Amino acid sequence: MDLRFTPEEQEFRQEVRSFIAENLDKETHASMLAGHRPSKDQIVAWQRVLNRKGWATVDWPVGFGGTGWNIIKRHIFREEVQAYPAPEPLAFGVYMVGPVIITFGTEAQKKKFLPRIANIDDWWCQGFSEPGSGSDLASLKTAARRDGDHYVVNGQKTWTTYAQYADWIFCLVRTNPQAAKPQEGISFLLIDMESPGVTLRPIVTVDGGREINEVFFDDVKVPVENLVGVENRGWDCAKFLLSNERVNTARIGATKERLRRLKKLAADVSENGRPLVDDPSFAEKLAALQIELKALEITQLRVLANEHKNGKGKPDPASSVLKLRGTELQQRITELTLQAAGPHGLVGESLDVPLGHNEDEIAPEWMRLAAPTYFNTRKVTIYGGSNEIQRNIIAKQILGL
Amino acid sequence: MDLRFTPEEQEFRQEVRSFIAENLDKETHASMLAGHRPSKDQIVAWQRVLNRKGWATVDWPVGFGGTGWNIIKRHIFREEVQAYPAPEPLAFGVYMVGPVIITFGTEAQKKKFLPRIANIDDWWCQGFSEPGSGSDLASLKTAARRDGDHYVVNGQKTWTTYAQYADWIFCLVRTNPQAAKPQEGISFLLIDMESPGVTLRPIVTVDGGREINEVFFDDVKVPVENLVGVENRGWDCAKFLLSNERVNTARIGATKERLRRLKKLAADVSENGRPLVDDPSFAEKLAALQIELKALEITQLRVLANEHKNGKGKPDPASSVLKLRGTELQQRITELTLQAAGPHGLVGESLDVPLGHNEDEIAPEWMRLAAPTYFNTRKVTIYGGSNEIQRNIIAKQILGL
Amino acid sequence: MDFDLSDEQRLLRDNVERLAAAPDGVTSDRGWKRERWKKFAELGLLALPFAEEDGGLGWGAVETMIVMEAFGKGLVREPYLATVVIGGGLLRHGCDGEVRKKLAGRIASGELLATLAHTEREARHELADVTLSARKTSGGFVLDGVKSVVPHGDQAELLFVSARSAGGRHERDGVSLFRVDADSKGVMRRAYEFADGTPGAQIRLDNVVVPADALVGEAGKGLALIERVTDEAIAALCAEAVGVMSAMGEMTVAYLKTRKQFGRPIGAFQALQHRAADMFIALEQARSMAVYATMMVGESDAAQRSAAISAAKVTIGQNGRFIGEQAVQLHGGIGMTMEYRLGAYFKRMTAINLMFGDSDHHLRKVADAGGLDRKLA
Amino acid sequence: MDFDLSDEQRLLRDNVERLAAAPDGVTSDRGWKRERWKKFAELGLLALPFAEEDGGLGWGAVETMIVMEAFGKGLVREPYLATVVIGGGLLRHGCDGEVRKKLAGRIASGELLATLAHTEREARHELADVTLSARKTSGGFVLDGVKSVVPHGDQAELLFVSARSAGGRHERDGVSLFRVDADSKGVMRRAYEFADGTPGAQIRLDNVVVPADALVGEAGKGLALIERVTDEAIAALCAEAVGVMSAMGEMTVAYLKTRKQFGRPIGAFQALQHRAADMFIALEQARSMAVYATMMVGESDAAQRSAAISAAKVTIGQNGRFIGEQAVQLHGGIGMTMEYRLGAYFKRMTAINLMFGDSDHHLRKVADAGGLDRKLA
Questions:
Q1: Is the ipTM of this complex over 0.90?
Q2: Per residue in C14-40, pLDDT tens?
Q3: D274, D275, D330: best to mutate for the C interface, most C CBs within 10 A
Q4: Chain D partners of C270 at a C-beta cutoff of 8 Å?
Q5: Chain B residues whose beta carbon lies within 8 Å of the beta carbon of residue D318
Q6: Which terminus in chain A has less CB density within 10 A, N or C?
Q7: May I ask the CATH architecture of the domain A124-233?
Q8: What DSSP string runs through A340-392?
Q9: Could you tell me the pTM of the whole model?
Q10: At the topology level of CATH, where does A249-398 sit?
Q11: Beta A212-223 vs A150-157: how paired, if at all?
């Protein structure tokens, strides 16, 4: 047991950092540093840079474009990308549908989709949630009826992030309405967003952003070869995917970066002549966050090491801890940032529309982004299995209650 | 609407305070100030002083020895007693069985018991909890079988506070094991502790104290005239009693006194040359407690005013808020006091055995009492309907969930 | 001590709640409507705090609390706080005789909007941090500087502007308050929306000349007045916050009863029931402190008044954030959408927490003051 | 980076857990038993941290962590922390050559108990606040003063006593450390029990004469050594705390599964399930920080080491209190009784939080240090 990074690992960290510094578009970096989400173009451009380097899909098995790095190196890589910050891989492709296709898909599916995922030639989105089925995912109603070589899909998905950019959507659909349990009779389908009968309705979120959508399916024909895994056994794919998601939604590297930034910002605002960062109460809040983040980082490494030891494919229910605490910490950073902005946190702005820097600002950009970011980040404890669901998982799967 | 105390109310407060100052035994006061529980003798002596003054049972109806004061005056009286601090009336008599007898009892019971309760000629204890029925009170098993003019009682009660002092115990017993619902078929019995077949076993608590007991009933004969209310309808008495208890367990006046005292103590300990009370983080914790206490005090007055307006006998489920927050605040004071004691909080002592002051102390008495008090105070969120049960009550009875 | 509303107060509450619930107030231009403002005037709401001799109703803090709570419930964005509570307060406590009477009358009739332009870009929550300069001239004063977070500063015709006429930055002495016509030469306003949609403005005063009688109170002694009126504003805001919180609580409980997951209403799940119970407790505690603030706002000892108001703001801030965050969480995705009214409440609650000092700021103030008064409950 | 235990470490863990679970260790005289201490010696546990050249096993912080966690689980009260971790640490880092070898050998064999007498009555958690005086004489030093919270100070034969040989109270410089035989003339001990039952003592040194070579390290420069060994003690204590917490967690989950109310196991109630989940999270986070402390205890940069150790103590303190309080709450009445083992764990956890600085103290230290090192995970 030794938690110290080896010299080789430290060197690797440096290599990743230098690569990012030399290859990441400066404007992308500046915009992200300021707290904006990267645009579609920025995400795609950076993913292609990584793909050329062979770093687009580092977690995938070697034969499929993975790097073969051990968990420590993968951790370092992810942390450096998040902490720089650079755009992260499009999760719906690289972390979600990619591994599902690798684990459950046919050779043809692997060949067709995986390289395009790595290069974001296809932009993917996720069709799991429905208006009636949020936390109770297995109650989903979108139906796929077999009709010769096709399924005919009817129904509605919702909370579909970035569906407006998507070329493809992976969906859970009900293929056997007569199944004994709700989890049975569900299948995992890949659907071309260009298919006739697919329509979108945007949902504007409280921060004024336009991230999410409703997706409607009206007699959409999907070729049978787009079924992943076994018909009616899609729940296996879903469980596998959700467990991967829990690890990734912790986003510890990103939270570290936000925390470092907040500390700098808090050194620049003063009250009564004292920088906020020297206010004892604020400084202790920052320290407390840093401590919890450190604990979570080590917990993450322990969970990953454990999963690694127990063999692939078997998700560790402890990943619920990562999702839970990771998202709570993300929220607390946004709360503290808003507090740091003070009364000028009132000056609102949307995350999606970067203002130019040349006009006379009512408040610095970070202050104007503080409230929308705080609003927007409320989502992280809701999506990917709400934190209440994660507590259920811990209670039932780990504690046996 | 006017929250200011009227001059008359302020005068009344002064009158109560002066009366306590002039009549409370000095040793009792000093011992309580130091954080000890009052002894049986101290409680009895003070109650008799109050009884001579006509203040023993201020909340009871006028005809039964009550003062006829309105809720504000009763609030002021209770607060002054707690804040002085002086011993409070023995709750099992004055707040619990007394009002039950007044509301549900026969004339004979009123005549026999009430004056003796007011003067603690009888020391009462409470026989509700059983080993198998804690929060699920209605699952109680102690059985009372009718046999001519008597009930024959068999079973066991537990967590019986001060049973070792008690002359009488009021019990919930099962008189009809065939009732359709667990709440039905329960009766409210008064049992003489001297009856043959009643035995005690003390339970030592983690703080080393000897407050609670198990009480065993082995073919105990109880005259039928000791039934309160209607046979098999004892649950009505129980609900009425528990709701009264919730108001009294808030103990806001006592918490105020502990908080004032803690502030003084924290002015007397220093670290690095700075008194603890000037440590920003500790000072903010004190302020936060004071604020929450103020809020709860006003909430209590609002609840009492509301109950008053809605007529007697109808308990306000909002009293759950008082129990919940009141007990949490009691606990937080003990936590902060232990923190203030610092490393010398390690020096243990029992709450029950006052040490003399003349020997060379390893640490001041308040520091030695800090840990046992912290331990002991864990009980307050458990008894009187655990705080989880109070949340159930709020969710169901107030919010309709 | 008495918790009951009088018949008159009950009538006021019912009337205002009805008006505030009218659905047409939210989406109009700049978030509010002149027509509804006129209805407020007709109902006497705009005359509420002014003395009868000034043409007002001579009502007090309790009535303001009643109005503001109803406004919170109804998400009313009309400039009541800025104009009637703050502007009215500055008039009542700071201005004399004819000026007071005249302006109070114009506010009461609904024809004049007022606001306080005080917060500056570097000041955060520190009220004494004023750098906008007031230079005395033979005929009056010249004001020069920028105020940045002025609620309803985009439309108010009457601006109360704080300025430094003497002393250094952060000094209590030397802060003066002036009445400034918004269309004076040199006044430049930049309108924007607060994060919750409330209209706001940055106001630049570029060597604005005001006459000598524009000075409110004594030169250099304006801070005590600003503090007093800020305390009144906080008390009113606490009441508004209680309205916002109770609306969020009610929406959440209703949602818990109707939304089904795993075959039953999610309100049947005990973990969510307990969360709802904690929200209820937080609301009741906040309500108590709003009542407390209302009572203490008239306290003559400024230090005690201020500590009490700060205590209320701490509770409102902490409990309001808790209730808001939990309401969104329990609603799930729908609580995150613009289409659903909960988000607007959540944003309003967040804005309230940023106004006049956040909970940490006020907790420190209470700690520094060494506690709360014993005169009141 | 590597999280796996070696085969040797796994063996150690299994052995110590077996020994620690033996039921005879809790209720004996002064809370522990000489027989078990001898078994520890036989197993090599008392030789664990000493260098091989001093007759030790040459093991490190990871092995200490393994041992302490098992001790926490088993509620072991033997003076391992005082004698082996702290006494051993002072020997290893502070004493030279023959003295070190001889004393290490005597500790390893189980014949010598040692402890550090440092905390004074007015010092609270401030390590530099030393007033017990050391006066230099021709042949050595005279020590005069009182130490009040000395763990196992009732039975330890070898006392490390900190004293002020120069400088004023609170000054870092001028603190010296001495080896003092507990039966020296002028040493008076008053034994008592800590709140958790651990034996402790107040120790008065009444002009105790010690020879010149009783000085550990350089005169006036003892604080750095005390800080280093205190950090090691905290790291060990964190591991013990993890053992205590995991025992409380396991007892609680087991109780939730068996205790029935309202016709089903109380573990079927979702609110309690979520509480148990929060306890699990708190435990996992605490475990991670105990690992972190273990790794950082050997960090050569004292400031970084100290910040990391403080961070661990913060987590242990907060999470340990949460787990303990919830464990008692979820057990209900039974958790409050002396007869049930949970109470003993709860009290031990409380005692751990009071030792070497509480969480607030260490949170302040981390804040003052400006954060944690990036070299480690």
A1: yes
A2: 999 999 887 654 555 677 888 899 999
A3: D274
A4: 269-271
A5: none
A6: N
A7: Beta Barrel (2.40)
A8: HHGGGGGB---TTSPPPSSS--SS-HHHHHHHHHHHHGGGGGTSSS-HHHHHH
A9: 0.95
A10: Butyryl-CoA Dehydrogenase, subunit A; domain 3 (1.20.140)
A11: antiparallel
